[in-house]
Amino acid sequence: MTMFQSNITLYSQAQFRVVIVKIDNRYYLAVLRKFVSSNIVTSISPAQRCVPIHELVNDKLFVMPRIQRLKSYHIPCQRNSNLQCFVDEFYMCLCTEERHSNCFPLEHQQTFACEDNVYCENGGTCLQDRRICFLNILCVCNDCFFGDRCQFYAKGIGLTLDDLLRYEIRPNSTLNDQSLVVKLSAVSVMILFLIGLLNSFFGYLVFHNRNCRKVASGIYLRLSSIISTLVVSMLIIRFWFVTYTYMNPSINRKILQIGCLLLEPMLRFFLHM
Questions:
Q1: 93 and 187 belong to one structural domain
Q2: Whole-model pTM over 0.85
Q3: pLDDT tens-digit profile of 132-165?
Q4: Within a domain: 5
């Protein structure tokens, strides 16, 4: 999940009745159904947490052999009417309506990492639903990268140049071979740059005169002309950086990270000054 994202949608070809979610080494019972449903909407709250067994039983029971402990696993369900599930180092146990425990083996260290990470780009972590004959692949992207294969990069909140141009720029092609949208964008950015540069230059010349800076507004407008020059300069640098990097997918990933961490925040900083 990304910043400010509060929900997620998952699609699966397999039908299921139980869904257990692991978040930061904590387990949550997200879904528990008697009957199979094709459309399930649920939420995760602290009440759905599968409590570690050592928080529910005394030390005497906890140090008992595994088989003897399992015989007493109905006790936490009967003592805690709101308890839905609990977990130990070997098993996940669900509390039934009759307040019995229904336990099954749980592999805590199970990994879904792909054996050959050739699908995800830009250092993304590849995950698959099965070790053998997998059906689905998921990429967990590093900071600044997103997309099904972590092929896009962006930083910040709101629309960026990456969002506006990433589907229009043709990789491994020159500027002459790009779409009309990309060419018009390049012309528009160059025109904006020239207009902004001339406007800032003449504004600076006007308010460079001391008589024009006798009031605070004159000083403010002089500084604004300098900031405007920086903004249009950062805009054109950012535009050509995005265009060039998308036209050349094989570019070094460190260069992309520099653009993500430096150019985009600087452009936003100057815009909000």
A1: no
A2: no
A3: 777 778 888 877 777 788 877 665 444 566 666 7
A4: no
